[in-house]
Write a structure and sequence with these properties.
single chain; alpha+beta; four-stranded antiparallel β-sheet; 5 helices; 4 strands; globular
C-alpha cells in the first residue's frame, strides 16, 4: 500500500464528516484497501478484492460489477468504488484537511524534539 495508515484514517475521517451516512461503507472500503489486492488492469480498469477474499470485482470507468452497485444504479458509492478512490488518493499523496493537520503536527513534534 502506498501511503500510511494515518493518511487512510484522515481520508476516512474527512469523508465521514462530509457524508456521515457513508461511514459504514467507508470503513469497509478501508478494510479492502488495507487487506485486499487492488490492481490496475488497464486504463481506468481496476480489480478490487472482495471483503471475504474469495473473489474480485472489476471497476471499469467508475462502474462496479458488484450486486450493491447494480442494485442501486449508476454513481452509487459501493465499497469497491470507495476503496479504489481511497487507494488512488493514497497513491497520489493524500492531501485531505485531516491528513495535512496530522503532517503539520508530526513536523511540529519533530521540530520540538530537535530543538530540545
Amino acid at each position: 500500500m502506498i501511503g500510511t495508515i494515518e493518511e487512510l484514517r484522515g481520508l476516512i475521517n474527512d469523508a465521514a464528516m462530509r457524508r456521515p451516512h457513508l461511514t459504514g461503507r467507508l470503513e469497509k472500503a478501508a478494510f479492502l484497501v488495507l487487506l485486499r489486492p487492488i490492481e490496475r488492469l488497464g486504463t481506468d480498469i481496476w480489480r478490487v478484492g472482495s471483503e471475504d477474499g474469495l473473489r474480485f470485482y472489476t471497476v471499469k470507468e467508475g462502474e462496479c460489477e458488484c450486486s450493491d452497485y447494480l442494485r442501486h444504479g449508476s454513481g452509487h458509492p459501493c465499497k469497491h468504488r470507495i476503496a479504489l478512490f481511497l487507494h488512488r488518493s493514497l497513491e497520489n499523496g493524500a492531501r485531505g484537511p485531516a491528513v495535512q493537520k496530522q503532517r503539520d503536527r508530526a513536523q511540529r513534534d519533530n521540530q520540538e524534539t530537535i530543538t530540545e
